[in-house]
Amino acid sequence: MTHYAGLDVSQKETTICIVDEQGRRLWRGTAPTDPEALTEVLRRHGHDLHVGVETGPLMPWLVHELRRRGLEVICLDARHAKAALAMQLNKTDRNDAEGLAQIVRTGWYRSVHVKSFEAHRLRALLGARRQLVGMTTQLSNHIRGILKVFGLVVGMAHGRSFSERVETLLADQPAVAGIVRPMLQVWRELKDQIARFDKAVRQEVRQRAECRLLMSVPGVGALSVLAYVSAIEHPERFRQSRNVGAHLGLTPRRYQSGEIDRSGRISKCGDELVRSYLFEAAGVLLTRVQRWSPLKAWAVRLVQRSGFNKARVALARKLAVILHAIWRTGEPFRWTNVEAAA
Predict the structure, then answer these.
(1) What 3 state SS string does 171-184 have?
(2) Among 58, 159, 211, 339, fewest CB within 10 Å belongs to which?
(3) The sheet that has 13-19: what strands, in order across it?
(4) Which pairing describes strands 25-32 and 13-19: parallel, antiparallel, or unpaired?
């Protein structure tokens, strides 16, 4: 007989509930949040067991470890699970675990893809770089603000010129220098670490054939392609390339009821980092890429009709679709219609 288990995971302890095919509760309890301990508890209640766990920080590690031990684990979207459990009068870990088991039993869910540890490693690299970039921006703005109070204006300076300009302004301001120089030193160290992360990103891209292939698309650089590859991971996950745009939150929301049918702004669901990099890539294609292509011609016409920002969002969605199609077929970007016909 098939049984269904729901796991409500916390850092130290996991609440477990097991139900049968009719939805009757067979067992409920807790176990340490450890794959070995959870496997031991779950195995006591049969081998034909479907285990449901919702998305969360510990989910990738827990799902991979439980699957490695032979359990059939289904990952549920936390937003869907929250909507399904919203009718519960009392919100407790025990009730949530039983609710997850019932969701798995009824089949009212869409399983979430669990990325590999390698994909999470790439995402961690990109996330760490982005965090440091944000810190350098905040720190440089803070330094500029302090100097302005004393009539010292840095002006349009970036990178090394920013550091040199600040040092020049501090030359005859010893009282201010004692405050600003420590922050400037931290700023330099952050910039050095960002450079090391950039080098690591380039090495990752050079080692991956799919990244080199996808960079044949104009406007797509190392950061964009590595973020895209780590988010999609397996192109066969999507039957149609156009589904990738919706997966990354680049398609408009729709509200339809009766005679009302309207489209709104893009959904912005999915991976925000990939979406932002594709948005930047679209801007590069529109403003910096000089070589003409049918893709750029389409985007330029859209700019004339709808404005730059809307065209940039639409181009970002189109880039997501094209990248998937290229990855799936293995053919590089076609710059002309003649190449497409050939």
Answers:
(1) CCCHHHHHHHHHHH
(2) 159
(3) 25-32, 13-19, 3-9, 49-54, 72-76
(4) antiparallel
pLDDT in tens, 85-112: 888 889 999 999 999 999 999 998 889 9
Q: Which helix (H) or strand (E) holds 126?
A: helix 117-149
CATH architecture of 3-106: 2-Layer Sandwich (3.30)
Token pair recorded at residue 331: 């053919």
User: Could you give the CA distance from residue 235 to residue 259 in angstroms, rounded to a whole number?
Assistant: 38
Rounded distance between C-alpha atoms, residue 35 and residue 31, angstroms: 10
Burial code (b: 16+ CB inside 10 Å, e: under 16) for 68-99 equals: eeebebbbbeeebbeebbeeeeeeebbbbbbb
Does residue 342 have a pLDDT over 80? no
Question: Tokens at residue 88, please?
Answer: 């519960």
Q: What is the pLDDT of residue 185?
A: 96
- Give the residue extent of every domain in the chain: 3-106, 118-207, 211-341
Q: What is the mean pLDDT of residues 161-169?
A: 92
Looking at residue 168, its amino acid is T
Token reading at 8: 């409500």
What average pLDDT does range 242-270 have in this prediction? 91
CB-based contacts of 246, cutoff 8 Å, min separation 6: 267
